[in-house]
């Protein structure tokens, strides 16, 4: 039986542990101490590491984890640690877990960003957040829009695991774009009660994201119209709407 659990690290990051109760692969271990404590508490051994991109809050704990256990690291090689480089479409066998995940190149937040999907789960790092998406540090709006469109095409039941707990702040902005979206209002209520209980708002299924996340809805009339109103000129559906909404959120 495979479990996927969030380990809160740093200020608002999650490292995701994929484990069977004995061995765990860690996604984006940006800080070692909370992860080592979690492993010790559970009596679980570290079996491997997956990295989505080179930012410090995603790779900062790798060196210390490797000092404890010499395990394979998969991800972009720009990270601090020696990684087996992955390319779009690569299948990665998670060591000791008998699981395969497929790498998906998703440039936009950074040029080296990779997401991993498999066994009904998606690990999307800083590309896709619940009701939001990553900032464009390196890629173009067209890069990010293409990456998000690919992710949104995965099956609706896919459980999305993001690298940050940004959901509530994202929903506040999403409601500016689509104040009358009933699915979004429902998600807001759910997310508020989860956070009040100190629980993650994640994972969330992709079907929910497709009806609530404005960045996955750049072809929907309400979002295109909101973008046009904000811009003050008629904006085309698709990447143009994405570009306006991303810039709008950066101002917000
Ligand atoms: Zn990042
Ligand atoms: Fe990050």
Record keyword descriptors for this entry.
252 residues; alpha+beta; 6-stranded mixed beta sheet; 5-stranded mixed beta sheet; 9 helices; binds zinc ion; binds fe (iii) ion
Number of helices: 9
- How confident is the prediction overall: mean pLDDT? 97
As a percent range, the share of strand residues is: 15-25%
What general outline do the C-alpha atoms trace?
globular
Label the structural class: alpha+beta
Ions and ligands: zinc ion, fe (iii) ion
Spans of at least 5 consecutive residues whose pLDDT stays below 50 are none
Give, in order, the helices and strands: EEEHEHHEEEEEEEHEHHEHHH
| Helix content class | 25-40%
Largest sheet: 6 strands, mixed
What does this structure look like?
The protein has helices spanning 33-42, 56-59, 62-68, 141-152, 167-177, 182-196, 206-212, 221-231, 239-251; strands at residues 3-9, 13-19, 23-27, 45-50, 73-74, 91-94, 99-105, 114-118, 121-125, 128-129, 132-133, 159-162, 204-205. The longest helix is centred in the last third of the chain and has 15 residues, at 182-196. The chain has 252 residues and is α+β, with helices and mostly antiparallel strands. The strands form three sheets. It has a six-stranded mixed sheet. The chain has a five-stranded mixed sheet with strand order 1-2-3-4-5, with helices on one face. Strand 7 and strand 8 (114-118) form a beta hairpin. The protein has nine helices and 13 strands. The chain binds zinc ion and fe (iii) ion (FE). Residues 53, 55, 109, 126 line the site of zinc ion. Fe (iii) ion binds next to helix 2.
